[in-house]
Specification:
alpha+beta; four-stranded mixed β-sheet
Length: 525
C-alpha cells in the first residue's frame, strides 16, 4: 500500500503535465478548426478571372495576353493595386493554383508552419532534366534543388555541416580576396580612354563570380580572369549556359507549361544548355575529387567543403551534385547582386565616400589583404549590401507549396496550393521602410548610443533576400563573402561613376541589369 502511494505521488506531476499538454493540443486544434470554418472559401480569393477551357494561361501568351512581356515587378504592383493583399491566379496550364501574398503576417504564418520538410518545387524542368533526361548521369541522386520532402531533408543534412558552419566559409576569405585583387587589376586593363568599363562588363563580372565559387566548390582556380580566355573556352561555355538555364527556367516554369506535353524549342534549348554546363562541370568535379583523394591527411579544421563531403559520404555523387549546384547557383545571382550594389553606390556618391573611408580604415594600403575578422568588422559595407538587396533583390520573393490547410487573410487556402511571398514588393513600401525609394545604409546600423537599428522596427518577414528556415539559401555565407570582398576592394581602389541615367532591368526568374554596365573607374590613389 505504501509502495503504491509513493508511486502515485511521484507519477502524478508527470501525469498532470501530460494531461495539460494534451488539453493544450486539443484547444489548439479546435482553434485552428474554428478559424478554418469561419474563413471565406478559397474560390472567393480575389484575382484575375479564368476563362472556360484555357483558364488564365492566355494572359501570358504572345499578342493576346495582358501579362505577356510585363515586367515582373510591374505585374506584382498591378495585382496588388487591383486585388489587394492576397491574390489568386488559378487554372494555369500544367500548374497548381497559385496565391500571391502581400501581407507580412501571412508570410510569417506560412514560413513558421512549414515543418521539417518545406516544399519548394517551382522548377519542375530542372527536376525532370536530372531525374529523367539525364538519369544516366545522376542515377537518382537528388540535390537541394531537385528533391522535396524527406528525400530533400536527408540530402540537406549531408551537406549542411560543410556549407552552413561559419568556420567553413571563413576558410575561403583569403582565397576569395585573392580573386578580387586579380579582378581589380583586370579592371585597370579593361578601361578605355574615358576610364569606362566595356559594354560586356556583366560577362566579366560573371567570370569573377565563377572563379570565386569554383574555389569553394572545386578547390581550384579555373583561370576565368585570364586576358586570353577564348570565347569558346569551357569557362565561357559554362557562363553562357548558366545564364541560358536561368532564362529557360523562367520561360518553362513560370508561364504555360507546354513542354510537359511536347518538346518545344525552348525545352530543347534548355536541355542543350543544361548538358553543356553539366558536362563541363562534371569534368572539373572529377579532377577535384581525384586531387582530394591523393592529398595527405589534414586537420579537420582545414578541410575544404569538397573534402568534408567526400570524407563523410560514401557516394561521391553527393559531392558532385553539391559542387555542380554551387557553381550553377553562384554565377548569375552573385554577379547581378554585385553589379546592382555598385550601381546604387554610383547613384549615392556620399554613401560611396563613407564606405571608402571605412575601407581605408581596415585596408590602409589598397594592396592590403582582407581577413575574416576585418570583413566582419566592416559594418557599413554590410549595411550597403543589405540596403541594395532591400531595394533591388535579385530574387523577387519566395515560394512554397502548402503542406497543410491554412487560413491566410481570412481565406481558406488548401494544402497543395502554391504560394508566392512578395518580399521585393514589401521591402519597397513606405509603410515598411521610410524613404523606401532612397538608398539609406544607415537604417541597418545601430544608433550612436547603441539604439536598435531602424530596420528592427519593420516586420521581420518583409526583408528576406536569402529565404528563411530549413530551406534558407545554402550558399548564403559564401555569396556574402564574395560580394562584400569584391565591393570593398573596388571601392578602396576606385571612385565609381555611372553616367548613363537610370539603370534598366529585366527579369528572367531573377533580376538583372539590362543596361550595359559601363561603370567609370577612377583611381583613388
Amino acid at each position: 500500500m505504501l509502495r503504491f502511494s509513493y508511486i502515485g505521488r511521484v507519477c502524478c506531476p508527470y501525469a498532470s503535465a501530460l494531461l495539460q499538454t494534451a488539453a493544450r493540443s486539443t484547444i489548439a486544434a479546435e482553434a485552428v478548426e474554428d478559424e478554418w470554418t469561419a474563413a471565406r472559401p478559397f474560390k472567393h480569393i480575389p484575382g484575375p478571372k479564368a476563362l472556360p477551357l484555357i483558364g488564365n494561361s492566355w494572359r501570358f501568351m504572345p499578342h493576346i495576353g495582358n501579362y505577356h512581356n510585363v515586367h515582373l515587378q510591374k505585374l506584382h504592383e498591378k495585382l496588388y493595386d487591383t486585388y489587394g493583399e492576397i491574390v489568386k491566379l488559378d487554372r494555369m496550364s500544367g500548374k497548381l493554383d497559385t496565391v500571391y501574398l502581400f501581407n507580412p503576417s501571412d508570410i510569417e504564418k506560412v514560413l513558421r508552419n512549414e515543418g521539417r520538410w518545406p516544399i519548394r518545387d517551382f522548377t519542375p524542368s530542372f527536376t525532370y532534366y536530372r531525374n529523367v533526361t539525364r538519369r544516366d548521369l545522376f542515377q537518382g541522386v537528388g540535390s537541394i534543388l531537385a528533391t522535396q520532402g524527406e528525400e530533400w531533408q536527408k540530402f540537406r543534412s549531408k551537406v549542411n555541416p560543410a556549407l552552413m558552419q561559419p568556420r567553413s566559409a571563413k576558410l575561403y576569405v583569403g582565397p576569395i580576396d585573392g580573386v578580387a585583387d586579380e579582378f581589380v587589376n583586370k579592371i585597370r586593363r579593361l578601361k578605355n580612354r574615358d576610364e569606362e568599363m566595356p559594354a560586356n562588363f556583366h560577362n566579366e563580372l560573371c567570370k569573377w563570380a565563377l572563379e570565386s565559387i569554383s574555389l569553394v566548390a572545386l578547390d581550384k582556380r579555373l583561370g576565368c580572369l585570364a586576358d586570353n580566355l577564348a570565347p569558346d573556352s569551357e569557362q565561357q561555355q559554362m557562363i553562357t549556359a548558366g545564364i541560358e538555364i536561368i532564362e529557360g527556367f523562367f520561360k518553362l516554369d513560370y508561364g504555360p507549361s507546354y513542354w510537359k506535353y511536347v518538346s518545344t524549342p525552348t525545352w530543347k534549348k534548355f536541355v542543350k544548355s543544361m548538358d553543356c554546363f553539366t558536362n563541363v562541370a562534371w569534368k572539373y568535379v572529377e579532377e577535384a575529387m581525384q586531387r582530394v583523394k591523393s592529398r595527405t591527411c589534414v586537420a579537420d579544421g582545414d578541410l575544404s567543403v569538397l573534402e568534408r563531403i567526400l570524407i563523410n559520404e560514401a557516394d561521391p555523387r553527393i559531392a558532385f551534385v553539391t559542387a555542380l549546384d554551387m557553381m550553377f547557383g553562384g554565377i548569375d545571382t552573385t554577379t547581378n547582386t554585385a553589379a546592382i550594389l555598385l550601381y546604387h553606390l554610383t547613384r549615392n556618391p556620399e554613401k560611396q565616400e563613407k564606405l571608402y573611408e571605412e575601407t581605408k580604415k581596415f585596408l590602409p594600403s589598397a594592396k592590403d589583404s582582407l581577413t575574416a575578422d576585418k570583413l566582419e568588422s566592416m559594418k557599413y559595407l554590410k549595411a550597403c549590401a543589405k540596403e541594395s538587396m532591400r531595394m533591388s533583390p535579385v530574387a523577387f520573393g519566395n515560394g512554397r507549396t502548402l503542406n497543410k490547410d491554412m487560413v491566410l487573410s481570412n481565406y481558406r487556402v488548401p494544402k497543395g496550393t502554391n504560394v508566392f511571398m512578395m518580399h521585393e514588393f514589401l521591402s519597397n513600401r513606405e509603410e515598411n521602410f521610410p524613404q523606401a525609394n532612397k538608398f539609406v545604409p544607415e537604417r541597418w546600423l545601430k544608433g550612436p548610443n547603441g539604439e536598435p537599428a531602424e530596420s528592427k522596427k519593420t516586420h521581420p518577414f518583409v526583408y528576406m533576400p536569402f529565404g528563411f528556415g530549413p530551406r534558407m539559401c545554402l550558399g548564403r555565407r559564401f555569396a556574402e563573402i564574395e560580394i562584400e570582398t569584391l565591393i570593398a576592394k573596388v571601392i578602396r581602389n576606385f571612385r565609381v561613376e555611372y553616367n548613363y541615367g537610370e539603370m534598366e532591368y529585366i527579369v528572367h526568374l531573377i533580376l538583372k541589369p539590362a543596361s550595359p554596365l559601363k561603370f567609370k573607374m577612377i583611381e583613388r590613389e
